[in-house]
Amino acid sequence: MTQFFNLILGPFENGHAHAGLILVSVITGAVMLFLFKLTSNQQAMKEVKTKISAYFLEMRLYKEDISAVMASQRNILKANMGYMKLALIPALVMIVPVVLVIVQLELRYAHTGFGPGETAMVKVTLEEGLDVVKNPVALKADQGVEKASPAVRIPSLNETDWKIRLTDNGIHNLTLETAAGDVTLPVYATDRLIPIYGTFKKASFFETVFNPGAPRIPDEVPIQAVEILYPEMSFSWGFIDLSWLWSFLIISMGFGVILKFLFGVE
Question: Are 78 and 54 spatial neighbours (Cβ–Cβ below 8 Å)?
């Protein structure tokens, strides 16, 4: 999935975040509508919607009869529950590809890389039960990165923190040294729209799905997690600023609704 998104979003890496997000949102909206139609009982849904319309008409015709109106309301509620039941399986089918798309967009559009001269916080959490004073972690930065503060150890959080300063553009390396072994992780000083990994953990199914492609912390290294805090990205749409997630949801759902009417999907 990561390689596939690298391919389709490659032309938008150099400052075309809006175009890339719109493209993925439109494609997602179309694919989700197709999956919904393919996995749902369109005839049964049409019948339910017809019943709901009839009950609303019944309420207008017999608006002076309270008992008839209440009966229609109960029937509308019952029909809506039936419609939701029919839509449950399509929704479960759609949630898998939507989550995978969201994960990929999160990597590219949730944060921006650092610029030269900017500082960042690096947080290292040791495995549970280890003392940060007795099990010190050292940070070594390569060319393009320099330490902006000494290590700050927080025993109550099992955490060691540093501030780093980026001096050059590019993808640089930070090496965390422990008595049991070292781990080298990337830090991104770039304005390109590429996957930016801000959290690193040991290999697991969860990490494979929700942080695909990120370097893993080796099992023998006594570090539980590493976090590098990147600036958040927002999307300006002229009159409003939105996060990438809200932008994606609005565009994909809006395009799906348009196609729904064009192709008569219930």
Answer: no
Q: How much is the average pLDDT of 56-85?
A: 89
Q: What three-state secondary structure class fits 120?
A: strand
Question: How far is 35 from 92, CA to CA, in rounded Å?
Answer: 11
Q: Please, which residues have CB within 8 angstroms of residue 38's CB and are 6 or more apart in sequence? A: none
Kindly tell me if the per-residue pLDDT of 174 is higher than 90. Answer: yes
Q: Is the pLDDT of residue 66 over 90?
A: no
- The C-alpha angle 129, 135, 137, rounded to 5 degrees, equals 120
- Identify which of 19, 20, 27, 40 has the alpha carbon closest to the alpha carbon of residue 255: 27
3 state SS of 144: coil
Tokens of 153: 């150890």
Q: Residue 153: helix, strand or coil by DSSP?
A: strand
Measured torsion, CA atoms of residues 71, 74, 79, 83, in degrees rounded to the nearest 10: 160
Amino acid at 152: V
Burial class for 200, CB neighbours closer than 10 Å (0-12, 13-18, 19+): buried
Domain boundaries, the chain: 2-110+243-263, 119-228
Q: Is the pTM of this model over 0.90?
A: no
Tokens of 124: 């290292």
